Amino acid sequence: MMKRGSLAVILTLVTVLAILLVLAGLDLSPGPADSTSVPPEEKTGTTAADSGSLRLRQERGRYLAQLANCMGCHTAQGGQPYAGGKELPTPFGTFITSNITPDKQTGIGNWNEQDFWKALHEGKSRDGRPLYPAFPYTEYTKISREDSDAIFSHLQSLAPVAQENPSGRIQFPYNFQPLLSLWRFIYFKPGVYQADSGQSGEWNRGAYLVQGLGHCSACHAERNPLGAVVGAAGGETLGGGQIMGSNWYAPSLTSSFEAGSAGWPLDEIARLLTTGVSLKAATSGPMADVVRQSLQHLTAEDARAMAVYLKSLPESAQPPPPPQAINEQGRAWLERGSAIYEKHCKDCHGSSGEGAPGIYPPLAGNRGVVMTPPVNAIRSILIGGYPPSTSGNPKPYGMPPFAQVLRDDEVAMVLSYIRTAWGNAASLVTRDQVDKSRVGLH
Known about the structure:
The protein contains 17 helices and five strands. The radius of gyration is 24 Å and the shape is globular. A three-stranded antiparallel sheet has the order 1-2-3, with no helix packed on it. It has a two-stranded antiparallel ribbon with strand order 4-5. The protein has helices at residues 4-25, 48-67, 70-73, 113-122, 137-140, 145-156, 177-187, 201-213, 266-275, 285-293, 300-312, 328-344, 346-349, 367-370, 375-383, 408-418, 431-437, and strands spanning 87-90, 93-96, 169-170, 241-242, 249-250. 41% of the residues lie in helices and 3% in strands. The chain is mainly α. Helix 4 packs across helix 6 and helix 8 packs across helix 11 (300-312).
């Protein structure tokens, strides 16, 4: 057994190391006397050509900010765009997004391009303070300096919003800054995306959008208990994982048994990304929000580039193990589920789970239905299944919520029936799984 004195020495050494890491991570170099950016249109000697160039850069920055989904995170429900205040719950506490309008007191009106680049590329605030990776700089670090400057130019063109947002409620010990610097030292490696010379320009554009601006691995990656993506620092993985702070699972983009698209036509992948629906699938939950807020704004060229890259991802998963044999109690469970399906589901999804093309998705052979864990299917029954309303699909059909209609055991029964009928072969759903999936419902 370790003596108390020895334990105290070790704790002291760990603390000293963490403090040294903080000091090493801080940017202590003297900055300019006044780093306030003067908007280019206010500078003396600005020509019409300069103004036109500025407008083009701001317009490009607006597009890039949409692809990065900046407004989606930095806008509270019912709040002013980009003024922050949105709560982001995580296992480490609740983060509050910041005001990134050009207000000088409460926003980023006193920032310059270098300050903004440092935040995206290095994960540091204007004062050199390390940022928590709830702000996905672990992916944004791959954004080019040119694109970073364009996004900043767009944000500086917005109307300032004076809105002081509260600080996040981060739990101990995660609110201890030396630990954050230690985390960054182990798990974060800054680096702009480097093109693969063995791939086409279209493929590289898609990789850049998926890995950087789109920050897809922020959701579609497995994370360890400290919130870091499982794999080498700076590596790219899209193997699926539980979305931190939510009851949703982001399926693997490299598995044909989850959300992999290797066997899909490019047009169908692009259609799903930009409209939220396709002949093969429909988005719901957090992904529907991403499509509505961000991906529907993709140009046709960028949507195709992302599709090319996603289609090229190598298969990474083995077929799921066959479900266990169903006993007599399980068969009774399924019979009751069949009756619930007949009453609540058959009119839209069909007697054989065939659905209605372009209206209601099929349940037979539906990867989202048989996926493990079944949390997404449970949540869709509880809160409803709503593809996003997009310019390419402005009036999507949706499924009403059943959280107040069906008990936990009834949700488990009907989903168990769906997961084992019409050629589907997945495990049964339990009452406890449904009960846990109700957490966070409003």
